[in-house]
Design a protein that fits this description.
Blueprint lengths: L11 H7 L16 E7 L4 H16 L3 E7 L4 H6 L7 E5 L5 E6 L4 H11 L6
Parallel strand pairs: 1-2
Antiparallel strand pairs: 1-3, 3-4
């Protein structure tokens, strides 16, 4: 996942680490057991369609990872709170819903897998 769109904000990394989201806030029944990929998209966003496919592939590949897509236009409350500046934006949440990574733009599969390494607990621990 290439570009952290919060990096230009002072103290962004600190805020991002403390931000937590619940399944209810995202309109989902539950978060992933090991991690959740939250994808903010809009109806006419061409890269959002490709992002949807990449994240669906990754969530099918990695057990315990869930992909939740959020329509940014209908969830302006979350967009403002999380300072989402464009679509697609992807957040990687740990099992408790803490944001551990965020990126904007079309991610590559290997980038998403690398970002998940930050959030997915080692099964041996």
């Amino acid at each position: 996942m290439r570009r952290d769109d919060r990096s230009r904000h002072a103290g962004a990394e600190h805020r991002s680490e403390q931000e937590r989201l619940s399944a209810g806030e995202l309109g989902a029944e539950s978060l992933g057991e090991r991690a959740t990929l939250v994808h903010f998209s809009t109806a006419f966003c061409q890269p959002c369609r490709a992002t949807r496919r990449v994240l669906a592939d990754v969530s099918a590949l990695v057990p315990g990872v869930r992909h939740i897509e959020v329509d940014a236009e209908s969830r302006l409350d979350l967009v403002r709170r999380l300072e989402i500046t464009g679509t697609p934006t992807v957040l990687v949440l740990d099992p408790e819903g803490a944001v551990v990574k965020r990126a904007s733009g079309l991610p590559r599969k290997h980038e998403v897998l690398a970002a998940l390494a930050l959030a997915v607990p080692d099964p041996g621990t």
